[in-house]
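PT: before anyone asks, these are the final sequences, not the draft ones from last week. 1013 residues across everything. Please model them as a single complex and drop the result in this thread when it's through.
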Amino acid sequence: MNIRPLLTLFALALLPPVMAQPAPETPTASQAIDLGSGAWDGVVNIDVSVLVPDYREPWNAGQPSGGSGTGFLIGKNRFLTNAHVVSNATRILIRTSNDPEPHPAKIVHIAHDCDLALIEAEDPAHFEKLKPLDFGGIPQLNTEVIAVGYPIGGDRISVTRGVVSRIDFRPYSHTSVDSHLAIQVDAAINPGNSGGPVLQGGKVVGVAFQGFSGRVAQNVGYMIPVPVIKRFLKDIEDGRYDHYVDLAASDFPIENPAQAKALGTHGGGVGVMVADVEPAGSVGEILKIGDVILSIDDNPVLNNGLVRFEGELMDMNEIVERKFAGDKIKLEFLRGGKKQEATVTLKRFDPYVRLGATYNQRPRYVVFAGLVFQPMDRNLMDAHQIRDRTVSYVFDNFLTDKLYVERPEPVVLTNVLPDEVNTWLTPYAHSIVDEINGVKIKSLKDVQSALAKKDQAFIEIRLLEKSRPLVLKRELAEAAHPRIMQTYNIQGDSFVGEE
Amino acid sequence: MKLFTSFLLLATSASCLHAQSPGPAAPRKKRVLTNAAAAAQPTVQNSSLVKVNATSQSYNLHLPWQKESPSGRRGLGVVLAGNRVLVTAQMAADATYLELELPESGQKTPAKVVAVDYEANLALLESPPSDKQKAFFAGLKPMSIDASARIGDAVTILQTGRVGELIESPLNISKVMSRRYIVEGSGFLVYEATGIIRSEANSFTLPVVKGNKLAGLLLSYDSKNQVTTILPAPIIEHFLKDVADGSYEGFPGLGMELQATQDEQFREFLGLKPNEPGVLISAVVKGASAEQAGMKKGDILVSINGFTIDSRGDYKDPQYGALSAGHLVRGRAYVGDKVEIKVIREGKEVTLNGTLARKKPEAHLVLPYQFDRGPRYVLMGGLLFQELSQPYLDAFGEEQRSGAILRLARIATNPEKYEEAGRKKLVFLSLVLPTPGAQGYDKLGGQVVNKVNGKVINDLNDLAEAFKSAKETWHVIELDDFPHILHLDTFNAERDNMRLLGGAYRIGSLKRLE
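LR: through. Structure below.
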């Protein structure tokens, strides 16, 4: 709402992804490119068939569609692209600029939180002679870059030119909850450019990934900078992507002189207040509300939460961003005016993943006697357009009010498929399930196991903040169940996840 | 940005309040001048009707030291015994000036409110005694009230034209039910009638007569479906009887929530036989009549004062047929009356005896409505604190509820946790004015205040008191929400207070605690 949180979750999803862009490899930006030279052969078009999961009818396959983006060779049969280019893909085809032959490919690693993916051709032979692109560093402001890719407007490779406009911590719209370092350029980045390289001096300085959807801003495109790419590549070295780690605390700038005095910072512009701490996060046991963070890994933290890092003022989270699960950081902070020091072992903070969009996952659900139960997450909230105040409150305040502590996976009664057995229950769709026959529902699996217990003649489902329980007579419900499954064409009555 | 949005919303909804108050929305938008044909119709002057002109001005909920711009309302009042004039409460709401006008001659006299009940949407006006007043009422005679109307009866809506001629629109009562009038809360008796109402200038109050007697006041008219709702005579009689004894108590309520039991599986679960009456009590309001009488959540309510309550929550009214059980208490009984309630508890019938009371709006954690008085507030060094009220939330509209407003709105619907903690009102930081002392806090708003200077804040009086006892040279303000802690320099806050008084924000007082 206000104040920049340390967590990336409050990020507004202003930036819808733009897809695919190739990058030319050129020594100087203004030099003409000879496509015949093969310099850009490593920049490929990625054609994707996707199946968008259906969170309204979770037992269905989903909606087939397709898209196109860009990728580029960074090593032996390794193509880097955006996660959103290949999300929910059922088929991936790679084409190079001078060869119309499609080559089937598959995902090796995908990191939705930083919108990057690594794919490989199923038959590497065709790409063996291509030269991979090299990485540069963080380009300076007002220096020229070119974006290369296969955006809308034609079939062949495209080049656009611009300068580096801004280097900032920005929301990544793919999950709608993550924020990382991003570089803003004024080169045109259009749908299809996504995943393509942005080059300076022939080296990759970023991956084009999103534009700006607002009507106000113009000539705003964003690329994922090299530190984020390098982090991704390092993370997957062990054969697995482990996700970003997070302090899981929010800060509040100390601008008020009384606040500074009371918290004991004595001015000087150093120190940011801790305004919220997630008990399940990395610093849950270390920091408290009202502490003042003075430094992070010996980098002084300014009163607005920024650090000077690699010559630029950046969000202090940028220091944490470069680390991996299990890494340690040193924190210096004030508590009650006294300086303290702590070593924090960083870990991933899971509850907030639920608040972001997820991909490549089969929707989970349980159907019983026409009652459809699904775990609350962003995909579900978007698909069902839930307006119920309690559900909205729980989703919006899942972290701020620490609701995940009591209920790690809230389960929503999303639908009641009408039948004689449940005809009085239809108005209660879009409610959070509190208990079933006295068992507190903390996850979808709890629903399945509570319904499976056959010791009682009635199934009593209590809903959160709803005035009456939903009651089904077990024998009637069980008799109706197969009939409802058949009527509504439901193949399986549950999917609670891969074991 | 949030600030800007809030202002916009507030402005929009404030105008809505005038344009489309949910209640007596007669044909006031289209002001149809009486045409020649209408004037030529043979009409009889009714000597019990007076025009009522009201100027109303509500407080600005966002900047509570200010008032909104005044606006005018017109209606047609009914002269009752003692030269008192009955109108809907909406006519009198936030009134700055009220006057009565004779329809034919245009003669006017000022008026004031004798009694008003916003829940029952009724107000009684009178004109202070004077020669003018005496002359004004000389030709008027009181109308009597007829509470006998039933479904199928013919009634007439009265309006007056430009020169005072009477315009009659005949209607038929098609339904009698229970629903809320203009403010949140339990339902009241309503007649629903069908027929076309001619569109005239008078609006906020129009009398409905049966023969020559008052059968009700118009609540709303849906011109598309030609459906009218009428505030009925039984409620008017109740109001007048209550006013007549000198102290006004209002309409009692039981304070409970009912769940229908038509669902067969649910009935069996509750242990109800197929044709047994009764509804499930799903909630009992703390401190209200039902709780005092010993009613518990989970009871099955089977009768009130000898009337059986069916599985829908209705009883058989001798006059109207099936009607919501709420009317047994609200419409047919008075505060202080005894009530006998039968419930089934653990399979056995239990008789509960109690005395009926009314939960006053002030007794709610979140004020359900407020008229005539300004919102309470405390301003300290640019930080504006208010007590949460339903009108404040309504000003944001249902669609705009997210973030802080969503959290506050949820507390309004689920106040139990805060009430049990001993809170009388929910004090929250509503706005931060850009003073030097509040530097860094100007984007805040919507956070519930928990403690100030170590003292628990149960209402604004506590807050004002707590600000007198800073332990250091700063105030410590603890909030329930992000960022949880604020500090305010005591000296700078006082200095900013002085600058705010009469400054750019035109603040006349740093608090309103009455």
